[in-house]
Specification:
- By secondary structure, the chain is mostly helical.
- Helix content is 66%, strand content 2%.
- The chain is built from 15 helices and 2 strands.
- Strands 1-2 form a two-stranded antiparallel sheet.
- α1 runs parallel beside α4 and α1 runs parallel beside α13.
- The N and C termini lie close together (11 Å).
């Protein structure tokens, strides 16, 4: 594999992550502001950007980090359609759904639940059953036409094996044991992605917000909207044999909003300010800790900085893959690369590795 200078490669990769990360944080702020209020949106943005998983994935080059921005955009635009009464946001939603699918089809479990909820709430089903043409029905059809139309070139080209590839990637993995089909795997992954304290805050906020919504019917629709964006993908990916923490990365946006929403329902101003201040301090502490912590992926300055070796990006693997210095050579044979991978992967099959050479 021949690419450009490794420092150019790192700069471009980090720049892409900066764009996606900034977009995700801003969209989460907009969602929190749209559902609750501006302070809730600001706190949700801070919480999201403080998650250890968000910080860690911003430093590596995985497609799921960009997918998180697309999922957040889909959820925001779906809200702004006002149950498909808005023509402008229906058009934007169709374009966003198409871009999400072209980015990675795994966005579907994150969006399908909230989308069905909006369809049921909007009265679209009644319009369809009564064969009644309405503004919201025309906007909904427009959204579907744009989403399917803009992705049609991809479907037409790969129509023969698209579903086979999807199933082989998600439902079958010969290196994954059948016992991995459980709900416990991703609970541990969430703990790693957001940290123990934020996980505890999430569950407390979830319980408090749900109880308050049931008793007082306050923001009930929006609470269910966010829950579906979390629970449906959690259950869906738990049933797949192929598992990885990155699959649920897009859940972090809704979880950050929930943590912030818990404070929204705290009516005691003094308590609200104390809890908000503690979360802000804890979040800033995570940022500072991350800023001064070592780079999560080992970059070995071998071969006079001509070769970039990245350890496996999967948290399930030990990030210890490296080549011994060989300054007299600028290239390795495939056999040698595989031997080094096998030796450093501690017997685990197929670790992720990126090797970049420059002549």
């Amino acid at each position: 594999m021949r690419l450009t200078n490794i420092w150019t490669f790192l700069f471009v990769g980090r720049l892409v992550n900066v764009i996606f990360g900034t977009a995700t944080v801003y969209i989460v702020y907009l969602i929190g502001k749209n559902i609750f209020n501006k302070p809730t949106g600001l706190l949700a943005a801070l919480v999201l950007s403080s998650f250890p998983g968000f910080i860690a994935f911003s430093r590596v080059y995985w497609i799921e980090f960009g997918l998180m921005a697309y999922v957040a955009l889909d959820l925001y635009l779906l809200l702004r359609t006002n149950f498909f009464e808005s023509r402008k946001y229906s058009i934007l939603l169709g374009i966003a759904l198409a871009l999400s699918f072209l980015h990675k089809y795994e966005f579907i479990p994150f969006v399908i639940g909230p989308l069905i909820l909006v369809i049921c709430k909007s009265g679209l089903l009644k319009d369809i059953l009564r064969l009644k043409w309405s503004n919201r029905l025309s906007n909904f059809i427009l959204t579907l036409v744009l989403a399917l139309g803009l992705t049609s070139f991809w479907w037409i080209r790969y129509n023969k094996d698209i579903f086979g590839r999807m199933l082989s990637v998600t439902l079958h993995n010969e290196n994954t044991a059948a016992k991995d089909i459980s709900l416990a795997y991703y609970l541990q992954s969430i703990k790693s992605l957001i940290g123990t304290i934020f996980l505890a805050l999430f569950f407390l906020s979830l319980i408090f917000v749900v109880i308050r919504a049931i008793l007082k019917d306050n923001k009930r629709f929006y609470i269910l909207y966010l829950i579906l964006g979390i629970m449906l993908p959690y259950i869906t990916f738990s049933l797949f044999l192929t598992k990885d923490s990155s699959h649920i990365l897009s859940m972090l946006a809704s979880m950050a909003i929930f943590i912030s929403a818990g404070l929204y329902f705290v009516k005691y101003k003094a308590l609200n300010m104390i809890l908000t201040s503690l979360i802000v301090i804890y979040g800033l502490n995570l940022h500072l800790h991350s800023f001064y912590s070592p780079y999560p992926i080992k970059i070995i300055n071998t071969l006079n900085r001509k070769t970039l070796i990245c350890g496996p990006l999967n948290a399930d693997y030990d990030l210890s893959l490296f080549f011994p210095p060989r300054k007299e050579r600028l290239e390795f044979t495939i056999r040698e690369i595989l031997e080094y991978i096998k030796a450093d992967a501690h017997g685990k099959n197929y670790p992720g590795v990126l090797v970049v050479f420059e002549r």
